Fold:
Amino acid sequence: MNRIDKAYKILADQAYKTTEPRRVLIEFLDDDKNKHLSCDEIYDRISKDHPNMGIATIYRNMQLFEELGIVTKLTLDDGISRYELANLEEDVHQHHHLVCLNCNKLIEVKEDLLGALEVEIEQEHDFKIVDHDLKFYGYCSKCK
Ligand SMILES: [Zn+2]
Ligand SMILES: [Zn+2]
Ligand SMILES: [Zn+2]
Structure:
């Protein structure tokens, strides 16, 4: 099952209809070019091909997708929520991000060295870690 079908299944399992706007949004978000966008940016890109898609519909559905775990919300210091389609794989950890303090660009980091740290923390604090969340702040190649 690909990510799109998984997202549809999550909707169906929770008794939400796979409406046309939801399908359009999920397929749009599945494209790696359309990652880390705010609702306004999604609207700007989608409304060209789908003039019937209103900004309120996008806001409402992105909120629903977040509640259902279909998308991950990234909130930066500018207070704008940006979204990306979640992995939707069991036990596959979401990647981490580099955040440019100047232009708010988000860059994905594939390297994850935190597994060893988790083991150490689990032993030290007798705590079962199931996930972690980490952002690195700095300046991107253009801004530095
Ligand atoms: Zn930058
Ligand atoms: Zn990302
Ligand atoms: Zn990690």
In short: Residues 35-36, 84, 95, 97, 108 surround zinc ion (ligand 2) (CB under 6 Å). The mean pLDDT is 92. The first strand starts at residue 71 and ends at 75.
